Predict the structure.
Amino acid sequence: MKIFNKGFNFRQDGPGNRLVYHLQGCNMRCIWCSNPEGMDMCGGRDVTVAQMLDECKRSRAMFFSGGGVTFTGGEATLQTDELCELLKLLKNEGIHTAIETNGTSKRLAELLEYVDYLIMDFKHYDSDELKKYTGVGNEVIKHNFEENCKKGRQQHIRIPLINGINTDCPEGFADYFSQFDTSNTVFEFLAYHEYGKEKWKTEYKVKDGFVTKEKIAEFTVCFEKAGLTVIKT
């Protein structure tokens, strides 16, 4: 497997204290990405499944408050074969697992058989708009979301709010999500930040992307009126 970063976070990447692996490579090119060094598959460093399993087992004492291991990116699902193997082994060890994904993998359901907590981005309800800013449409993302709803799977949907890109119509998001059974789904809004701006080696294209507390409140009210559960971590 290829990773470009790892470390512990508390409640930012799933429940409890977690060992978070950033897997190398991403199929999206989000213009606001905070980890541009994780985009190209040729970067990062190689580790074996056995090495990662051993590290996770040795880290058990750190998995307090219901913690465990989270795989993020980049886009973790680009390494599905190796990730699926590791997730199976972690499940056998009784270690809580989570993934953070952009939702574009056609094999996501295969991974979710061994995942305890799913965090999935949903950056735009309009496929053409999403493709404009990330290079990828949302057809597979919607399919995965809808299948998870049908199967009653837990899912934590994160919506990054970026001024001028996806903040004009909260109803567009709410109207889409409210068509489905979201009784096992929670939604979270992430305010735009520039933490990764200095890491970009090419032009950073987001201009005036910050959102106000009032805008986040507007989205929250809209979602709650539609019967959607909003959380903040």
Summary: The mean pLDDT is 97. The chain is about 30% helix and 20% strand. The radius of gyration is 17 Å.
